[in-house]
UniProtKB/TrEMBL annotation:
Residues 7-24 have a biased composition (Polar residues). The chain crosses the membrane at residues 79-101, 107-134. It holds the Pfam family YflT. InterPro entries: GSP17M-like_dom (IPR025889). This is General stress protein 17M-like domain-containing protein. Residues 1-26 are annotated as: Disordered. Residues 29-104 form the General stress protein 17M-like domain. Keywords: Membrane, Transmembrane, Transmembrane helix. It comes from Naasia aerilata.
């Protein structure tokens, strides 16, 4: 192989790797639009039960929005508690590793317990410090989610009529929008 500098180069063993496929929007026809993801899942389930070939069926969420639900006020106590719990889990993990890789001795469980308590203490201190730095910038707790305004079911064009026929039968699905 000739390189850019005119000299010979050896191909890298990594250059022959297949390119990772980028996600693309599905092509085909929309056979139903539903308000909730659960309704769209139910429609696909109906297709499956009717022996419809679902390998080319897609559920597409449209008009995505980020929604943050405020769950409460953040205080030093809540920050400390969450930090202690997080640190406790890390301490338990380290304690388990110490127990597994240390010779059997009568004090090994004490070491594991000490690791858990030290982890909880460090987690609490770090959480309190982090809250003190960000206080007045974000004094609340919340959960975040990305949701869609509606969900469409897209199938290949050559099977769209059959899918619409299956989804049009029965009253077990909410009507499409």
């Amino acid at each position: 192989m000739i390189g850019d500098n005119g000299g010979m180069t050896t191909p890298s063993p990594f250059s022959a790797r297949p390119q990772q496929q980028q996600p693309t929007l599905p092509r085909g026809e929309v056979v139903g639009t539903y308000e909730t993801y659960a309704d769209a899942q139910q429609a696909v389930d109906k297709l499956v039960k009717a022996d419809f070939s679902v390998k080319d069926v897609s559920i597409v969420g449209n008009d995505l929005k980020s929604v943050e639900h405020v769950t409460g006020r953040l205080t030093y106590g809540k920050a400390a508690g969450a930090g202690a719990l997080s640190g406790l889990w890390m301490g338990v993990f380290i304690g388990i590793v110490l127990v597994l890789f240390s010779p059997a001795s009568p004090g090994v469980l004490g070491v594991a317990l000490a690791a858990a308590l030290i982890g909880a203490g460090f987690g609490m201190i770090l959480a309190i410090a982090s809250y003190a730095v960000t206080r007045r910038v974000r004094d609340f707790t919340s959960t975040r989610a990305v949701i869609a305004a509606n969900y469409t079911i897209v199938v290949q064009s050559d099977t769209a009529a059959r899918a619409q026929n299956i989804l049009g039968r029965g009253d077990d699905l909410p009507p499409a929008l």
